[in-house]
Amino acid sequence: MSLLDLDTDQRAEFAARIRKDYEELQARNLKLDLTRGKPSSEQLDIGNPLLSLPGEGNFRDKDGADVRNYGNLKGIRDIREIWSDLLGVEYEEVAAGDASSLNIMFDLIAFAHSFGTQDSERPWSEEEQVKWICPVPGYDRHFAITEKFGYEMLTVPWLEDGPDMDAIREAVKDPQVKGMWVVPTFANPSGHVVSRDVARQLAEMETAAPDFRIIWDNAYAVHTLTDEFPEVIDVVALAREAGNPNRFLHMSSTSKITFAGSGVSFFNSSTDNINWLLGTQGTRGIGPNKVNQLRHALYFGDAEGVRAIMRKHASLLAPKFSRVLEILEKNLGEYDVARWTEPKGGYFISMDVLDGTASRVVELAKNAGIALTEAGSSFPLHDDPNDRNIRLAPSMPSVEDLEVAMEGVTTCVLLAAAEKLGA
Amino acid sequence: MSLLDLDTDQRAEFAARIRKDYEELQARNLKLDLTRGKPSSEQLDIGNPLLSLPGEGNFRDKDGADVRNYGNLKGIRDIREIWSDLLGVEYEEVAAGDASSLNIMFDLIAFAHSFGTQDSERPWSEEEQVKWICPVPGYDRHFAITEKFGYEMLTVPWLEDGPDMDAIREAVKDPQVKGMWVVPTFANPSGHVVSRDVARQLAEMETAAPDFRIIWDNAYAVHTLTDEFPEVIDVVALAREAGNPNRFLHMSSTSKITFAGSGVSFFNSSTDNINWLLGTQGTRGIGPNKVNQLRHALYFGDAEGVRAIMRKHASLLAPKFSRVLEILEKNLGEYDVARWTEPKGGYFISMDVLDGTASRVVELAKNAGIALTEAGSSFPLHDDPNDRNIRLAPSMPSVEDLEVAMEGVTTCVLLAAAEKLGA
C-alpha cells in the first residue's frame, strides 16, 4: 500500500524495517557504479574486428583517394553513404568527422559564439544575452556546454511525444533565444522519443531569432532494446520544406555502436550549414581521421550491417533494463513514492522519487557503496527544482551486480521517503 | 654571370632564349604539384603495419584501462611515455590527443578568446584588439587561425638562429600582444632551427601581457634529412626556470611520422596550462581516440622506434631535397636573381626570387602545368610586401617528376626576372 497512506505507527514500523535493510546493505561493503552510460566490456567485444581493420593494403576510399594522407574535410564517401542510408537522409547533407559528435556540438556553438552563423547579425558573443532552451530532464554534457558559454538556460518539460511545444513556441518569441538542445530518440535520461508531429512543429514554428538552431542530438538513433528500430525523421528535409532550411543540426555517431571514444561522428544538416561548419573546420585543421572512417566502413559493410550490430547490443542490454524495471516494480511498486520510465531503447532509465529526496537517495546509496549519478545532474546547473530526479544507467555492470545495486537503490529510495515523511 | 650585370643586348638575348625554353616547357603539357607538404605514398607505406594494429585482443593500456571505452582526457600512459622520452620532456607535462595538433592550437586560441587563460584578466574577445607576433616567412595555416579571430598580425623576420629577438622584445612591450607563432625546428618554410640561446631569451623576456603565450609548433621535431636528430629544447622547463611557467605551448604530432591525418597529437606545457586546456576539453568531449594512441604505442615500441621510422623517411626525402637544390644551383646559381635555404630537415625549401616577381613566377609555372604554393602564402593575409618568397614542397612527387618540375620552375624564375628587368 502507498507509503503516504500509512498511519504514524505503521510508518514507524516500516521505517524501522527499512533502516535494518539499509544497515545490512552497508554491511556488505559494496562497490558498484551506475553513474554513466558506458557500454560494458561484452558490448565492446562486439567491435573487436575493428582492432585489426582496415588491414594491410586497405587505404583507398571509394573515390580512389589515399586515406593515409591529408585532406577531405567532409569525410570519405564509403562511410557517408552507409550512414545517410542508415538514417534515411540525403548523402550530400552528411559530413563524417572524428570520434565525437559532442566535439562537433561544442564547436557549432563555439563558432557561432565567436564568428556568428551565416544567418546571424553578429557573433553570439556580442549579443547582450544568449538564451537556450533545455528540455528537462536532459543530458548533463549538453547543459555543461551552454553553461560554459554563459547562456541562460530555459527549461521546458519533456512530454511523452517530445518537449513541450507550447512552452517552446512561447520562448522562441524572444530573439535572444538562439537555440535548443534535444535528444530526439530514446532521450537521455527519459527514453522518450520525439514524434514526427512534434518534429514538424519544431521545423515549422516561427522564431524571433533568424539564426535559431536546434541541436538534434540523435545519439541513440538506432539504439533499440527491442527487435524494432525507431523511425529516423529527416528533420533537415522537414525544415527545408517549412522554409527554415538551416534550423536543424542533426548529430549522431558510432560511439555506442563500435568503441565509445574512437568511432566516427556525423553531422547532417543543410548544405549551407555544412559549408558554414567546414569553413571554420578548414581553419581548425586539415580533415578528419579518414583511416578510422574506412575502418568503420569496412566493418559495417552497409546500413544493415549497423543494424545487425545493434541487435547484438540489444541482446546484452535488454536483460539489464528488464531486471532494473522488475526490481523497481517489485520493491517500490506498491509504495507510491517513485515512478520511472520504461524505455524501448537508449542507455538510461529516469526515476522520479518523492519530492525533496533525490539528493538523499544518492547520498544513502553512496554511503552503501553504490555510485549513482549526482542528483540534479539532468538539469541545467545541476538544479532539479523538485530534487526528485535520478538517472539510472544499467549498461556497464553485470546483471548480477545490477541486481545487487538496484536492490540497494530501492532500499535507499524507501528510507529517504520514510525520513521525509517523518518516520 | 649575374643577370643584373648584363647590358641591354645581352639581356634581350638571354630573355629570348628563356622565352624559348618556356614555350618548350608549356608544350609539354605538364601536370605537376609542388604546393603542399604532403608525404608521398612511399613514405605512407612505412606506416602500413598500423593498418592492422592494435590487433585483436589488444585493448588495455599500461594502467589496465580498456581503451575501447570512454575517458582519460590526458591520453594513455603508453604513448605519453614514448613521446616524453622522445622529446626529452617531463612525462606529466605531456598530454596526448587526437590526430591533429593544429586542432589543439586552434582550440588553445579559441578557448582563450572565449574564456580567457588562467592568467588573463578577461577573455581575449573582450580586449579592444589582440595582436600576435608572426615570424615570416611562416606557416600559412597558423596565420589563417589568428586572421580568423581578427588578431592583428605583427611580422618579425626570421634570422638564422630564430626569429628576430630585438623586434620581439620591442613588440611584447604592448599588452595587446598576447602571443606568437613559431615553428622552432626545420621551420616552415625556411628550415631554420631556433637555437637554445634564442629559446632562452624567449623564455626569459618580459612581456606586458601576463597571459602572453608562445605556440611552439614543433611539427618537425624529429624530421631530419640527415643521420643526426636536432636537439629538442625543453622550453617548458626553460620558462619555468625563468619564472614564466605558462609561456610555452609546445605542440607536436605523428602526422608526418605515421599517417598524415590519423595520428596522435601532443601538447607539452606546464601542468597549469594542461589543466586549463583539459578543463574546457572536458566540456567539449569525453576524451581522445585512445585506441589510436595504443595503436601508435604498439607500432613505435619506444622513442628509438620513432627515430628508426624517421630514418626511413629521411632516406626517401633527402634525395628529393638534394635534387631540388642541385637544379636550383645549376640553373640559377650564376644569375643572382634567386636565393634559397638548404634545410637539414622538415618539408620545405624557401626560395626568394627577384623582388616583385614571385607572383609572376607562380603564374608562369601554373600556365606551364606546374602548381606552386600561391605567392605570399607564407605571410599573414598572404601579403608578401616584397613579392619575393616562394615555398617549395619537394616531398610528394617522385624524383623524376620533381626534376621536371624544378627545371620548369627555374625557367619561370629566369623569365620573370628578365621581364622585370625590362628585357
TrEMBL record, chains A, B:
GO molecular function: L-aspartate:2-oxoglutarate aminotransferase activity
Gene3D superfamilies assigned to the protein according to its UniProt record, in alphabetical order: Aspartate Aminotransferase, domain 1, Type I PLP-dependent aspartate aminotransferase-like (Major domain)
Name by which UniProt lists this protein: Aminotransferase
Chain segments annotated as coiled-coil in the UniProt record: none
Keyword annotations: Aminotransferase, Transferase
SUPFAM superfamilies xrefs: PLP-dependent transferases
Pfam (any one): Asp_aminotransf
Domain of life where this protein originates: Bacteria
Species for this entry: Corynebacterium doosanense CAU 212 = DSM 45436
